Amino acid sequence: MLSIEQLSQMVQAHLGLTNNANEAQYTTKWIIKESPLGGRGIFATEDIASGEVLFVDHPLISGPRSGALIRRGCTVCSKLNTNKLFKCHKCSLLLCSESCKNSSVHDDDCGIISGWHSKVPIEEVDAALLSRALTAVRALLLNEEQKRFMTSLQAHILPQHGTEVKELQQYFEIPEGDVQLMILASCVLDANAFQIATSYGKEEMGKRGLYPVSSLMNHNCVPNTRYSYNSDLQMIVKAVKPIQAGCEMFTCYTGLLWGTPARRIHLYKTKHFLCKCERCADPTERGTFLAALKCFSAECPGSLLPIEPLKSSSSWRCFECGLRVPCDNICTLQSALGSLIGSLDFGNLVELENFYLCRVTKYIPKTNQIVIDLQCRLIWELGEIENHRWHDEQIEFMKTVYAILKINSFRIPTDDREKTIPLRGLFPLAAFLNHNCVPNTRNVFKEDDTMEVYASRDIERGEEIFTCYTNFLWCTPVRRYQFRSIDLLTWGQRRKTHGRTSSSGGFAYLNQLSEYRLALKEQLCRDTLRTVAALGAGDAHLRGLLLYHLHAALAERARRCPDLYDELKSEIESTIDQAYKILQGDISAPPDLELRHRYLGPGCDKPQEERFFILDTSENLAVSMK
Ligand SMILES: [Zn+2]
Ligand SMILES: [Zn+2]
Ligand SMILES: [Zn+2]
Ligand SMILES: [Zn+2]
Ligand SMILES: [Zn+2]
Q1: CA of 194 to the centre of ligand 2 (A)
Q2: 325 and 233 assigned to the same domain
Q3: Which residues does UniProt call coiled coil (predicted)?
Q4: What ipTM score was computed for the predicted complex, to two decimals?
């Protein structure tokens, strides 16, 4: 076990703070010392302002995550492009390209693995298992000093850790010393590794990294720091709120918006401790009621919460009527809710939206983490995902369809006594017929939705065949008017009332929903921001994302309705400004963050139209900026 002194020296060396202190981008305002929570922790030595960089950590080792369910990609660049992946013929690691194969990263990996004697032909080695164990394998590349640093970190020495390394021995004869070091690396990784965020919108194999300085920070359910990654895999750790001299600096190993029982179970299962922080001890979690369930008594509007949240077997009690419910009943309800949520198709926005709006709050209070989680999913997707972008491609398609229908479709007569709404149909061959107010054909609509076109008088060879787009008994002004009278709304309604809507509905229907969804997105952002603020989470990463999405919704509203600009201007500017301050430099940040900040943030003196012009083209610009 290293002394605090030795550990501090290693940390300084690791962060590169010893040699070129004057060139450092930040000065350390913290030290490592014994924590009242047990073990070591990082403590502020001076007052630290919100947003200040505390340190920039880099991984001792990094690589694929070890979970059996993680999709496996290239072991060098993490790409998931499954058709192109192949196994290295020397070591059996998955690769995507010749350049990844020839990279120094693969050279190192390959050198170790191909150095082991394989018990089976190399192509029979399980590439997925190799990928799961690879991060631990890379510990063999560390120098002695780095190994000492790694082994000084907390490790989970339990049989369930390091199984992927043990399984590797089915395929390879590995020197005992290497096996021991890799198992230890696995145990250290499981206790300390951080999942590395991927670039915005990119699908990559999940990676983790052992960031030794960050891993010295203890956990708190309301952390006072946040971290982000840059493209060099560096982790930048910043204060999310002012930290006073002498205070401990905390990170958070769970979801910020999970309720207390969920957080504590997760921490116990993955990190083997039960959190006793201030938030965990407060049944209401600072008034956010994230874990609350509906009172079991039908008449009561109250919420159930654990009486003693630090005891996992605590009974729950209704805050309104005092009804007590034993822990077992709560667990049954929670697992029922779990399977209800598990049955949802998270890829289906419409289903999520319906569930959120109509069903979920029948079972659980609006404050419950499940509702909040749905809220966040909807926020991330509304306006952003395929088919639900601000400028819906479906709408564009519908417009085209409408334009075609407007010119080409025929009104299908219906029996007036049934008072049905008129139908129309696109008959593609008949649509080639030009219009004449005295046509030489007539149309007969049949029961089976076909249209028969008869000659209404003798037609000579070479004569053009005409139809009449209006009622030919009408006088000219009426006929003209009729061409303009069909509007989008009518069309949408007709289609809908007849149950013939495609899944996306008519154009007008979608358009209405879009406006509505825009308002929904704004509302969801505001609600969730309130919860984050109530927790005292400061400028957490999540707050940055929520502000970005709130900004996007407000800006879209102003773009659609320029009259609202003056009213919305200051909030459009302040939300993107705050989001930018929190998310800048983060590889997982939305790619148009910078551009939006420049054009729609405070201090942009361009005229209104020009500022909003970027919303139409921001996607293209963001791509070309790369
Ligand atoms: Zn690759
Ligand atoms: Zn290889
Ligand atoms: Zn463990
Ligand atoms: Zn806690
Ligand atoms: Zn009650």
Answers
A1: 26
A2: no
A3: none
A4: 0.85
